[in-house]
């Protein structure tokens, strides 16, 4: 059985009285591209910083690739991390970045890094501070991937990029996954990007995990039920109501079928990824579930 790339149990991180992440329990299988989704302040960056070993938990357990994050040099070499704004050193040239990467990483793949830079058309003598946002993102991605890690972690890597640069970055990311046989955790608030490249989902809101699992399984297990008011009060065991909206005559429910069996109910329709995510975010904030018109706006 493959070791999960990320496993947590009741993982909690507090800063003074502020709880950034609360009681997070996850088991993410190897070989996935994981979309970590949630609003600003949900705890996404905190979870990723914990996974990268940049900070320590207040309580609970976290293992990355079966070990404590940043336990030693070997564990660090197995994880590539790109923080927000795809940080590079403005005063160093592209070539300097590759030399630094080779110096710091014992598993550095120089041929891969050099080939990627040539493919991207980056000038080795050009300082990183003079690169475009998309080029900086590609350089950061190249450096992280050239470590030949088992896990790549990205914290909002495309948030500041224009649509063309964002698409190019995500396309290259998918190519790396196929070429390097690497797992990925990608934090984003752009559900369309997650739907394009990810096959596993973690939804964070109000510092807590709202739902997690393979995307195909999750979308197949969530349904919208519509019926006359009073007719949807009794649901089978294992079918959880995520959101409910009532009018004088009609009830609309969003439900999660956790039984593992097909859900058969008159008027039941599966919902898309965006509808599902927005429903959990609305629930976490204590808001009414979004209508069809709102989710498609």
Please explain how this structure is put together.
The chain is built from ten helices and 13 strands. The chain is α/β, with parallel strands linked by helices and 297 residues long. The protein has two domains: 200 residues, 3-Layer(aba) Sandwich (Rossmann fold), CATH 3.40.50; 80 residues, no CATH class. Strands 5-6-7-3-8-9 form a six-stranded mixed beta sheet, sandwiched between helices. Strands 11-12-10-13 form a four-stranded antiparallel beta sheet. Strand 6, helix 6 and strand 7 form a beta-alpha-beta unit. Helix 4 packs antiparallel against helix 5. The radius of gyration is 21 Å and the shape is elongated. 37% of the residues are buried.
And the CATH topology of the largest domain? Rossmann fold
CATH class of the largest domain, named Alpha Beta
Tally of separate domains: 2
Mean pLDDT value = 89
Our estimate of the beta-strand percent is 25-35%
Distance between the termini: 43 Å
In sequence order, what are the helices and strands, one letter per element?
EEEHEHEHHHEHEHEEHEEEEHH
How many helices? The count is 10
Q: From the coordinates shown, what is the CATH architecture of the largest domain?
A: 3-Layer(aba) Sandwich
User: Describe the biggest sheet?
Assistant: 6 strands, mixed
- Strand arrangement within the widest β-sheet reads 5-6-7-3-8-9
In helices, the fraction of residues equals 25-40%
Low-confidence stretches at least 5 residues in length (pLDDT < 50)?
Answer: 288-297
Report the structural category: alpha/beta
Write out the CATH superfamily name of the largest domain.
Answer: P-loop containing nucleotide triphosphate hydrolases
**Total number of beta strands:** 13
Domain ABC transporter: 6-231
Keywords: ATP-binding, Nucleotide-binding, Transport
Protein name: ABC transporter ATP-binding protein
Organism: Glycomyces luteolus
């Amino acid at each position: 059985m493959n070791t999960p790339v990320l496993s947590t149990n009741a993982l909690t991180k507090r800063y003074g009285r502020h709880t950034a992440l609360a009681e997070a329990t996850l088991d993410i299988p190897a070989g996935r591209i994981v979309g970590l989704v949630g609003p600003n302040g949900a705890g996404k960056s905190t979870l990723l910083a914990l996974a990268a070993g940049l900070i320590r938990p207040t309580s609970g357990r976290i293992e990355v690739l079966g070990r404590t994050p940043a336990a030693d040099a070997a564990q660090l070499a197995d994880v590539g991390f790109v923080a927000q704004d795809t940080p590079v050193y403005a005063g160093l040239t592209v070539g300097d970045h590759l030399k630094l990467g080779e110096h710091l990483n014992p598993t550095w793949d120089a041929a891969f890094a050099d080939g990627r830079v040539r493919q991207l058309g980056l000038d080795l003598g050009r300082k990183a501070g003079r690169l475009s946002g998309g080029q900086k993102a590609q350089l950061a991605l190249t450096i992280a991937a050239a470590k030949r890690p088992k896990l790549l972690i990205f914290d909002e890597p495309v948030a500041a990029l224009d649509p063309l640069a964002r698409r190019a970055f995500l396309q290259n990311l998918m190519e790396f996954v196929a070429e390097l046989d690497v797992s990925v955790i990608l934090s984003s608030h752009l559900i369309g990007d997650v739907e394009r490249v990810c096959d596993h989902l973690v939804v964070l809101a109000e510092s807590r995990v709202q739902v997690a699992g393979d995307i195909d399984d999750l979308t197949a297990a969530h349904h919208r039920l519509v019926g006359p008011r009073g007719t949807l009060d009794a649901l089978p065991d294992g079918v959880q109501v995520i959101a409910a909206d009532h009018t004088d005559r009609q009830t609309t429910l969003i439900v999660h079928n956790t039984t593992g069996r097909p859900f058969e109910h008159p008027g039941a329709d599966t919902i898309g990824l965006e509808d599902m995510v927005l429903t959990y975010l609305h629930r976490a904030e204590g808001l009414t579930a979004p209508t069809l018109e709102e989710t498609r706006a």
